[in-house]
Amino acid sequence: MQIKVSDTFNRELPAxxxxxxxxxxxxxxxxxxxxxxxxxxxxxxxxxxxxxxxxGFSKTDIGSTExxxxxxxxxxxxxxxxxxxxxxxxxxxxxxxxxxxxxxxxLFEIEHNxxxxxxxxxxxxxTTYSRTADGLAVLRSSIREHLCSEAMYHLGVPTTRSLxxxxxxxxxxxxxxxxxxxxxxxxxxxxxxxxxxxxxxxFQIFASRNDKHTLQKLVDYTIKYFYREIDLKxxxxxxxxxxxxxxxxxxxxxxxxxxxxxxxxMNTDNMSILGLTIDxxxxxxxxxxxxSWTPNTTDRQHKRYKFGNQPSIALWNLYQLANAxxxxxxxxTPFEEALERYKSNIALQYLDMMRxxxxxxxKDENDIDMTxxxxxxxxxxxxxxxxxxxxxxxINKTNDTEKCLQIIHDAFYKPxxxxxxxxxxxxxxxxxxxxxxxxEEKTDTERKENMNRINPKYxxxxxxxxxAIDKADTGDYNLIHELYNVLKSPYSxxxxxxxxxxxxxxxxxxxxxxxxxxxxx
Length: 521
Ligand code: AMP
Ligand code: MG
Known about the structure:
Blueprint: H1 9-12, E1 31-33, E2 43-47, H2 49-54, H3 59-62, H4 65-71, E3 83-85, E4 88-91, E5 94-98, E6 104-112, E7 115-122, E8 137-138, H5 139-155, E9 161-174, E10 183-194, H6 200-208, H7 212-226, H8 237-259, E11 261-262, E12 284-285, H9 310-329, H10 333-358, H11 367-380, H12 385-392, H13 401-407, H14 420-438, H15 444-451, H16 462-473, H17 478-487
Antiparallel strand pairs: 1-3, 2-9, 4-5, 6-7, 7-10, 8-10, 9-10, 11-12
């Protein structure tokens, strides 16, 4: 096997000079060298073949013991030097100081077809940044990360990816609901892939320590490899960089809102500098449309990271990044202007996105009212977001409001509630919608095709992931394979997989793992 290793991060940026793997504060360095823990009895659960090929592995490589040994942490590929990154972050609104890759170890970078990729193991043992934790990950959270990052990729949402999911053969002690009930679980390792895993927090840590020198190096490195359109010699490169990060972040958030994804832990250490969805922890998917929903039980009280807050939290996080970067320029005005731009752009792009979900190509001055009215009606009686928008495409211009309600009827969790005032509100909204549809030049068929490219039929509903986890615990991985195949074509009509286009079953409503998730992983 010939891997086209092209390391840059650990060659061009300052390293922690201490090489023993001890927990400590690391200053003036972007990373520390560490070696993955050799797993006791590793076995492959699932491998993402198409991603493997995209990285330049041959079909023979993909099935080889050599590659398996690398992605399971059993061996270090020759001439490579694995490392963990140093970063800080604001957690739930408070500065938390140094965090770092506590259980992520970067293996190496690959350049293939003019694209740069970093491979990283999550759950491969203690690092310099593990603090009091063990550096490991359990099977349940690793299945969730593996399946969801691939699902997001196929939905067209910017995300880190997952090349492989491996059982380590080691046992890992966890207290799932933080209530004193610790138990041993199966350990697992995910091999994640992204152009880079640099986060907002990688920049924040140096600003917090008044380390201008390392901060500047990291900014220049990031521009050089990942924001190549920016001129490294330009005096405005820092603000240009910030503006570019801001745009990418904004795009990612719009995509989350489009598909009903709730990240759950939007701390600044979980914000990718490339605008990728990163760190799949207690995330969840909206079933009933509900702006105040978060799956994360750790956030139950304040709901800081609920669905409806994601656009404003991203802005808050961008403020923190701006605070770090402004340290290099001492000019606050351009940053303030950029952040103002986010506010107006997110409103515009959100509206465009909602219009596209509704299949509308023409703009109308009442669009804001129409979409926000819809959002509030969707919340009046629990209405499944995915089913509602998917079914909406079946409406024809000649339908009446009664027919519209019939078409989307499957989306209601409690159809008996659709009466009186709620029914009236739906009828009013559909009357408006039908008027808009009749003002569209596109035919019903054309609109349906467009809408079905925007509104997915299949998403990784929380209970689906949990079913795959329960089966996998017994050693049966068939459901992981099945879900992976469904989620690879989220916009298609897959007759043999129709059963995944249904509302969340009642048994899953309050089940741990389905509607409630903690950060324990
Ligand atoms: P997260 O909430 O997963 O984003 O993690 C926040 C911080 O805790 C990061 O610095 C992680 O690397 C670290 N962390 C989370 N779980 C573990 C673990 N099991 N062992 C070591 N560090 C961890
Ligand atoms: Mg994290």
